Amino acid sequence: MSQKFFARIGFEGDSDQLIADVAQEFNLGVVQGSSVLAVGFEDCNIKVETDKGAFVIKAFATFRDAPQIKRYVNVMVKALEGGVNHPFLYKTRTDEYIYQHPKGVKLVVMDFIAGKTYFDSKTTPNDQEIGQIMTEAVKINALDLAPPKVFDEWSTQHIVAMYEKTKEFLGEEGRKLAQTAIERYSSIDFSKLSTCFVHGDLIATNVLKGEDGKIWVLDFAVSNLYPKIQEIAVVSTSLLTDLEAPTLLSERVNRAMNAYLDAGGTLTEYEQEVLFNFATGCAGQEFMGGHKLKYVDKDDSEESNYWIKLGRESLKELL
Q1: Is the pTM of this model over 0.90?
Q2: Which residues are CB-neighbours of 304 under 8 A, at least 6 positions away?
């Protein structure tokens, strides 16, 4: 298995033994095969196949301390209790969700869902699927959760700071796009926006379509109390953007908003009015965040370039 993924979690040694130990601790059965899932920038996700089924070991990156991991797992548990379509979480022999291996690795185990994320399938949701996604969003926004804050530099609240970090890499047109996005986002009267628990990252890599067509929500790492419309804005700029057959951001915003309302969500007139401006802020963060990954963090990967293209496509409407 690729050692770069295990380096994220501070593990050195026999990965097969680690997996066997976890399978025994969670009573997963006899291991028949395993492979690292090359998704995400942070944790290490390992698919494990046993005589009882297929599972995912999510081993947490070393930068996550114990309170952060506890927060993350508690949110997943509460989401499951609230009926959100998230992979089932298993418990250890001592009835705990979080297991710390003798080698120091902290991890959880969940079901493996056969299917693909929209990023992997390089597709965008059809109308039926966006309806399912927004049904999950409404469930998430209704959760009675106020977890400790986590810092997410990609959140729109940090759009000015992101610009300062990336402006030298954006080029003249890119700087104009970013500045316009900042102006539109900053024009919003945030005192008029309702806040609730928000996943905050319903992007193409975090929404999975199962082989049976069921929609699954992944990765609550940056979930927080945010303006409700942030959930819809992120869906508009990420999930609904088809780089092969692009549509205007304003059209995607309306599509996402209508699906959210049809799913039972509620928005004030003011929230509907400023949703497009909020979405431009999200697009700006995707555009600049991709540049930060590529030029500041030196991560010239497919995913970094994807965010640059995605953000630029949404912001073109501002020119």
Answers
A1: yes
A2: 290, 293, 294
> Residues 102, 175: one domain?
no
Residue count of the chain: 319
Which H helix or E strand runs over 248? none
Report the candidate in 273, 226, 278 with the shortest Cα–Cα distance to residue 249: 278
Whether 214 and 139 share a structural domain: yes
- Residue 165 and residue 310 in one domain: yes
Q: What is the pLDDT of residues 130-174, one digit of tens each?
A: 999 999 999 999 999 999 998 899 999 999 999 999 999 999 999
Three-state DSSP at 62 gives: coil
Whether 298 and 192 map to the same domain: the answer is: yes
CATH classification at residue 153: 3.90.1200.10
In this predicted structure, the answer to whether residue 13 has a pLDDT above a threshold of 90 is no
pLDDT in tens, 201-223: 999 989 999 999 999 999 999 99
Verify that 24 and 107 share a domain, yes or no.
yes
Q: What is the C-alpha separation between 217 and 206, in angstroms, rounded?
A: 6
